[in-house]
Amino acid sequence: MRAVLIGAVESSRVAARCLMEAADWELAAIISLPLSLAERHSDFVDLAPTAKAAECPLICAANANSPDIIARIEEQKPDYLFVIGWSQLCGDRLMAITPGRVVGFHPSPLPRLRGRGVIPWTILLDEPITASTLFLIDGGTDTGPILGQRFFHVAPDETAATLYARHMSTLAAMMPGVLAELSRGTVSPIPQDDRHATWAMRRRPEDGEIDWSWSAYAAWRHVRACGDPYPGARSSCGNEVIVITEAEPDRITTHRAALAGQVVERSDTAFTVCCGDGSGLRVHGWRWGRAGPPPLHAKLGDHVRVSG
């Protein structure tokens, strides 16, 4: 079986490796973004070394639906297209290259959380269980029948980075079996039950801004959801953006008379911000344009609206 892979992130690389190792499969080509457009994905992966290892062409494309890219894919005469880690929807002409045989991956228990920004939303919604899902792409958005799905629990202290990694390892474990069934023609796709569908809306870098009127738990959850490989939870101190990368809820034992967003404790390695419920967010990882933490009594998020 010949496959063409379209993608530009870590899940694309995982899928490529699985295709390279699978019996009865040949990775004929990889379609990916040029390095000049890497900023489209905060988790962009350069697939040139993967294509070299697979001894297949790497075709750079800003738009996989453009006529020239479609012609390049048609030249490969694929049996299946794998569109994994690609933000653009598949157009009719692209889908027509391998009708009914376009495979996608989604880091949610479809039909729950169709859409965008799914890993951050999983944490923000306090989802206790999630799943990695391989499915056949159809004319909708993440609506096609399911080829394989593996569930796992979401830890109470899960971060975007740990959840991302767990989805990658689950995809790597799930894909070989699905590939074997596809090559044998024994796969039985399961239609999604639209009665249980929910939707995740797109998130932008500015959506990582912390509202200090939240509880300390909500602020901590936000930090966990927005971190690496995504742009990060952020606030402002004066006119400077501060990105908070590591934090935990912390009961404030001093400075009880404080405003939400105010720095109430500070050391060389950490600082505590008062939250809307009177508890604190203890920050021990951050990035901004100065050395050390913000000054004691500073009020974060007070002066400028944080933008991407």
Could you characterize the architecture of this molecule?
With 308 residues, the chain is an alpha/beta fold. It has two domains: 2-200, Formyl transferase, N-terminal domain (Rossmann fold), CATH 3.40.50; 205-287, Formyl transferase, C-terminal domain (Methionyl-tRNA Fmet Formyltransferase, Chain A, domain 2). Helix content is 24%, strand content 25%. The chain contains seven helices and 14 strands. It has helices at residues 10-21, 48-54, 67-75, 92-95, 118-124, 160-184, 216-226; strands at 2-6, 26-32, 58-60, 80-83, 102-106, 114-115, 129-136, 146-153, 199-200, 233-237, 240-250, 263-266, 271-274, 280-287. Strand 10 (233-237) and strand 11 form a beta hairpin. The two termini are 43 Å apart.
Question: What's the layout of helices and strands?
Answer:
Layout: E1 2-6, H1 10-21, E2 26-32, H2 48-54, E3 58-60, H3 67-75, E4 80-83, H4 92-95, E5 102-106, E6 114-115, H5 118-124, E7 129-136, E8 146-153, H6 160-184, E9 199-200, H7 216-226, E10 233-237, E11 240-250, E12 263-266, E13 271-274, E14 280-287
Parallel strand pairs: 1-2, 1-4, 2-3, 4-5, 6-9
Antiparallel strand pairs: 5-7, 7-8, 10-11, 11-14, 12-13, 13-14
Helix pairs in contact: 1-6, 5-7
Q: In DSSP terms, counting alpha (H) and pi (I) runs of 4 or more, how many helices?
A: 7
Lateral strand order in the biggest sheet: 3-2-1-4-5-7-8
Structural class by helix and strand composition: alpha/beta
Number of separate structural domains:
2
CATH architecture of the largest domain: 3-Layer(aba) Sandwich
Portion in helices:
10-25%
Task: Kindly report the name of the CATH homologous superfamily of the largest domain.
Answer: Formyl transferase, N-terminal domain
What distance lies between the first and last C-alpha atoms, to the nearest angstrom? 43 Å
Sketch the major β-sheet: 7 strands, mixed
Order of helices and strands: EHEHEHEHEEHEEHEHEEEEE
